Amino acid sequence: MVVKTLTINDQLVSARPEQTLLEAAKDACIHIPTLCSMAGISPIGACRLCLVEVAGSAKLLPACVTTAEEGMVVQTHTERLQRDRRLIVELLLAEGNHVCSICVANGNCELQDLAVEMGVDHVELPYQFPHRQVDISHPRFGLDHNRCVLCTRCIRVCDELEGAHTWDMANRGRDAHIISDLNQPWGQASSCTSCGKCVNACPTGALFHKGATVGERQRDRDQLRFIATAQRQRQWLREVPKSPSQ
Q1: CA nearest 56: which of 73, 41, 31, 42?
Q2: CA within 20 to 30 Å of 100's CA: 108, 194, 215, 234, which one?
Q3: Domain boundaries, the chain
Q4: How many CA within 13 A on the CB side of residue 154?
Q5: What contacts 24, CB < 8 A, 6 or more positions away?
Q6: Residues 29/50, Cβ–Cβ less than 8 Å
Q7: How many helical (H) and strand (E) elements, i.e. helices and strands, does the chain have?
Q8: Other C-beta atoms lying within 10 Å of the C-beta of residue 192
Q9: Rounded Cα–Cα distance for residues 99 and 106 (Å)
Q10: Which residues pair with 141 in a beta bridge?
């Protein structure tokens, strides 16, 4: 196996073939903020929080979908990057209806953690206050569109780990939102297996267990990592024995 050597924040880092900058940095204990990325599902570069500066590139590159190459020189926490990340977090907060004090994910929310990390103690942008619905038609779970950040984790985990593809994205821009089946209420989505993987993957309080109160949101990401690893290693597949005639 050919190992690549690159420099991240003036530190020499080794990367395996096909490994992304985000993965290489994580292995080297270098933190790069992200919201849409999650171990076990495919990266898409949606949130743009993991943008990094790469020497020789005129534009910022998303670390989660950029393959680490030999000799790369990468900076992850320049003043420009931190300013842009703070702006992204502010845009997410201003575009939705995020009231942490009454959210089930309060204290266990990745957007909230990012706001603290970026020093966002107030939002300078005008709030949009969109009129969004809450879907509690499912017997076990609920969907609050007000808290959704369009990370598409639910879409990818439902498709890639559960194989149901209940979730999808509809519309564009400020009208973009996730839908179940062909825009049916979640409780009427015949493809949903009620596995709860999407709820487990959600970084905010957009997907939640019905009956959960403020600050009660808990996640078991180890379960998703276990399923993803077992699927990748084909641990649950058995070879069908051949008949004597074959």
Answers
A1: 73
A2: 194
A3: 4-77, 82-232
A4: 30
A5: 6, 8, 13, 14, 15, 16, 68
A6: no
A7: 6, 10
A8: 21
A9: 9
A10: 209
Could you read off the pLDDT of 113-161 as tens digits, one per residue? Answer: 999 999 999 999 999 999 999 999 999 999 999 999 999 999 999 999 9
Report CA Rg, the chain: 20
User: 222: Cβ–Cβ under 8 A, 6 or more apart, which residues?
Assistant: none
184 DSSP assignment: B
Question: From edge to edge, which strands make up the β-sheet containing 134-135?
Answer: 134-135, 141-144, 207-209
| Distance of alpha carbon 93 from alpha carbon 88, whole angstroms | 9
The correct CATH number of 82-232 out of 2.60.40.60, 3.30.70.20, 3.30.465.10, 3.90.550.10 is 3.30.70.20
Specify the length of the chain in residues.
246
CA distance to 14, 98, 200, 205, 210, per residue, from 213 (Å)? 44, 16, 16, 11, 9
CATH architecture assignment, domain 4-77: Roll (3.10)
Q: How many CB atoms lie within 10 A of CB 208?
A: 22
Residue 99: both structure tokens together: 């009231």
Q: Which tokens belong to 60?
A: 């910022």
User: Model confidence over 102-125: pLDDT tens digits?
Assistant: 999 999 999 999 999 999 999 999
How is the beta sheet containing 11-15 ordered, strand by strand? 11-15, 4-8, 73-75, 51-54, 61-62
